[in-house]
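User: Hey, my collaborator sent me this sequence without any context and asked if I could get a structure. I don't really work with proteins. Can you help?
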Amino acid sequence: MYKIFSTVISIILVFSYAGQISGADQKIIISPTDFEAFDTPSDDGTSVSLRWPSSPSESPDAEYVVYVSENRNGPFVTEVLRINSQTMYEDNSHSQFHYVEVNPGKILSRKGERKNNRKEKEEHFFKLVLMSGSSTVETKNIASAFSRGDWFDWKKLNNFVLMISFVVLVLFFLNHAKKSPNLFIRKINGLDAIDEALGRATEMGKPALFVHGLNGMGSISTIAAVNILGRIAYRIAEYDTTLKVSNIDPIVMSVSQEVVKESYLEAGRPDAYVQDNIFLAASEQFPYVAAVSGIMVREKPATNFFMGYFYAESLILTETGANTGAIQIAATDSYTQLPFFITTCDYTLIGEELYAASAYLSREPLLLGSLRAQDVGKGVLIAALVIGTILVTCGIGFVRYLFMAG
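Assistant: No problem. I've predicted the 3D structure and written it out in structure-token form, which is a compact way to encode the shape of the chain:
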């Protein structure tokens, strides 16, 4: 009887001691006092925003875990969020609130727990749990929210206003350019030299060579180069000189043929147009370089135009042209090749001058007005950048919200 009593007492003591050890591993943590969920404003109806105050138990090893369910009573087994407790603070809350946007519909669909395929007007329920080591504590309330799509994203209102302002600016200068065809554009020496270069080719009785860059018609620089080609072809037709155009892309070649043909028609010299002079030199980079260099060496054009986007072949082409004694005019927005063009060519159009060239040469009101509006828009942005920097430096930060992407 005494042994049985001793054994029972021992078992009770062992379990009591074990409970004290387990309790020593756990620590008391405090849950956030509130937890709210609401539809994310100005979204497409897939997002729900979660917001809760910071807990005093936050630490580097503590985590917030949010579970989602389609029923208020659960089960809450699907994690929609797991973050470190000291991250994802709400802007301007000074670490007092957490704010997170989640997509519960996507999570539930991935887990196969969604009841239907609707994307909007579906209520979701969320439970917030704070975990630290083996201790967990959850908030008392279950937050819920519907996700609805909005027609207008108010966070991008500033972008909308800027776009409307720029459109108004373009329309104003288009109308102004129609009334004043002699709208002032800064002088571009490389374009003014085109007449000089073509006159030299006419006097020498040698052809002018137009070399396209390596990009296709999807490139803005190629489109700008084709526009310049049309104006050069018009002058060539007037001077009765031979124009040769080398291409690396068959689509660019076809477009160039049509552009040159139209320019000859516009100049009243359709008989002088020779389709074979707009040709496909090669379809690969360095075979193209070899073919064009061979033309330069054999035919010694009086003028070489390099227009478009170039790569490693730029220096080989322009160096070959310089050795033949030709006047060379280049235009490219490839900033890595600009040093080679500037070194080996007589004139170089840098960056945006390539895009402005077609307006400069044609003097068409549509292009002139657009170009002037772009310049004014850039001036406004530069002024806003300088003034905004000064204001933010002085502690006035509202100006940065005017140009946020949303």
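In plain terms: The longest strand covers residues 123-132. You can pass these tokens on to your collaborator as they are.
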